[in-house]
Each structure stands twice: as structure tokens, then as C-alpha cells.
Amino acid sequence: MMRETIFRLIVAALGFLLATGCEETVATKYGILYDDYQPADADVADDDQTDLSDEEKDEKDISDINDEEVDQDMFAADDAAVPDDDVAGDTGFFPVEAIWYQDISQAPKDAESDTVIANLAANGGWGNGDTFQIDFSIEVLYADGTTLRREFFPTDEFYSPDCDQALVPVPDGGVLEGEEGYRCLSDGDCHLIVLEQDEKKLYEMWRADIQEDVFFGGCMAVWDLTRLYGPSGRGDQCTSADAAGYPIAPLLFTADEVVSGEIAHAIRFILPNQRIRNGVYVHPATHSTNATAGGVGTIPYGARLRLKSTFNVDALPSEGAKVVARALQKYGMFLADGGQIALTGRSDRTTTAKWDGLLDPHDLSSLKVTDFEMVEGGDRIPYTGDCIRIP
Fold this sequence. Notes:
Blueprint: H1 2-21, H2 60-63, E1 80-81, H3 113-122, H4 127-130, E2 134-138, E3 141-143, E4 149-150, E5 153-154, E6 168-169, E7 192-196, E8 201-205, E9 209-211, E10 214-217, E11 220-224, E12 227-228, H5 255-260, E13 267-271, E14 276-281, E15 299-301, E16 304-307, H6 319-330, E17 333-338, E18 343-346, E19 372-374, E20 381-382
Parallel strand pairs: 2-18, 3-7, 5-10, 13-17, 14-15
Antiparallel strand pairs: 1-12, 4-6, 7-8, 8-11, 9-10, 14-20, 16-17, 16-19
């Protein structure tokens, strides 16, 4: 154990130096290595995956796009602080004006919507053997001013200036995504997500691993919950704990929300990297990756898909599934990361209601790619990876 820890410290130190001193590390952000990660408790069908080149696609792929004007009403024009009584109000996280909480049931379709959906269907649809399945493995932990703060050693999966280095509140008895504790044993994404209620901050880390007294961490984003972030979030070309660059926790639906009969926000979804457009993203995404391989007319990071109003929600097998489907019609879902299990709910470890008997991971498996349409996404932004942080 001592030799392993020493080795990890050396690797972490080298990774930090590379991340802060070498522009070439930009090209390694969110590579293909973790595209096939699947939660240990998921019932997953195999989906063919092949290693992808990290070379940039031809710039002409970007210039061929028919850019659309973004609907600025869906964003804050500029970042803004809001009074405390608006913080986390009914949302649990960001101010109610944030894009995650906007009703887009009547928003116009994107000009490329039909092409995007047709290409996605032709290229295999959802991951996981084209099965629209739910992953319940991501946890949100709660902390306050009394919670122990811990320093972490940045690994080679920490990118500067994209990622934040700060003391992290680590609650006793918590867990990482897909794990039973704070050790990252599955070699998965191992997200650590902590909502600090006194500070009104959200700490989200990718590839966390706490080995007794040593805390290793990949990219961490610290989100200010009093802030109404603009279209560029923490900064264009900047990643976060998710490849697309936006927060994770506000897009996770919970068992408590489903029991209440309403999910009042958009939902996180993911796709295999081969099906995500290379070299381009749309707001509110601020980032893409070189592991993506889709060409012109495929779905970009930041895309917001909406379940068609004509979909027969009443035909779904459970009341829980109907609640999720209605949210997909009203608020839609944002493409956030690369992977296999399409839709992301939150673990029920800290919720009052539990998923057992409420919503099965396969209750939405009848939903096909062609049941969705892409909401107007606005300008297609060429991905360079040259992060410019917004203070």
C-alpha cells in the first residue's frame, strides 16, 4: 500500500505539472478510455466500441454548418448574483431563472433537428444496444460549515485552467459514483458531488479517489449557487466534471421528485462518443472532446432533446416512468458526457423515497431516438480546448 501511494503521488505531481505547463494536455481531455464505463449494478447489453483517434477533424466540417441564432431569452445575458432568498429556492441548486428550469415545450425545433435525429438513429441510436435505460449510480452528498475540508492531489486528469483546486468538503460515510465508499476501485468516472449548504456551493469532481489519508482528484468544478451563469458558464472551451462543461447535480432527477409527481428541470443524458459531433458544441455546453467522432449533421455537446408532444405517455408501464416522460416533454434533456446508459437519475441513498417499486431502469426502454427532436441550439461553436475562464 505504501509503494502504491508513493507511486500515485509521483504520478499526480507529474500530471499537475503537465496540466499547468503544457498546452498539449488539452488534447487528452476526456479521452476514449472511460467511454465504455458502465455502472456495476446496471443490466447492460454489449455495444460495439472501438478506440478513436484524438486527431482533430477537418475544419471544413465546422464551416459547413448552417449556424442558427441562439434564443437569448433562455439564458441570462450576463452572469449575475442573486439575493440569498432566491438561491436554491424551489430548485435545490441554482436560481429559478437558470436554463435548466426553463419550459421548452413550445420552443422552436433546431434547423438541423431532423438530420440530427436521423443520423443518430442510423448510427445505432442510444448506447447500450439502443436501449433507453436509466442509471441510478450518481450520488449527491450534503455538507455544511462543520464538514471536514480536505486537500487533494491533482492527477493527470486535472486540467488547467479549466479545473478548480480548492479544499473539498468530504462528509463522513459518503460514496463516489458507482462505489461503496471513497475509493475508486471500478476505474469508472467516480464522480464526487457535494452540495455545501452553508457556502451555497456545489463541488463536483471527476475521477476522485480517497485512499485513507491521501486524496487524489481529477477535474473539479466549484459552482456558485448564488450565481445566474450566462451562456458561457464557467468559460468557453472549459470543461467541468462532465465533458460538456456544465454541472451534473441540477440535471439528476430524484426518487422524491418522481413521488411528488413532477420533475421541474431538464435531465442529463449521455451517448457513445462515436455518435457525438466532433469539433463543435452549442451552449450551454462550453466544451467538447477529441474522443467524439460524429461528422456534419450529428448531435453536438450541449444539444437539448425534447420528447415529442405526440408521444403516448400513458402507455408507459409505471407512474414513475410517466413523470419522467412528462419532464422530457416540458424541460427536455441535455447531452452532457460520453457513455452507454442514456438517462441519469440520482441514487436514492439520501432521498426519502426509494427507486424500488417506483421506477425500474428499463421502464423507459420503449423510447426511441425518433421519439425526440432537438430544440433550437443556436450557434455552433468550434471546439479548440483553449479554455478562457470567466471570473
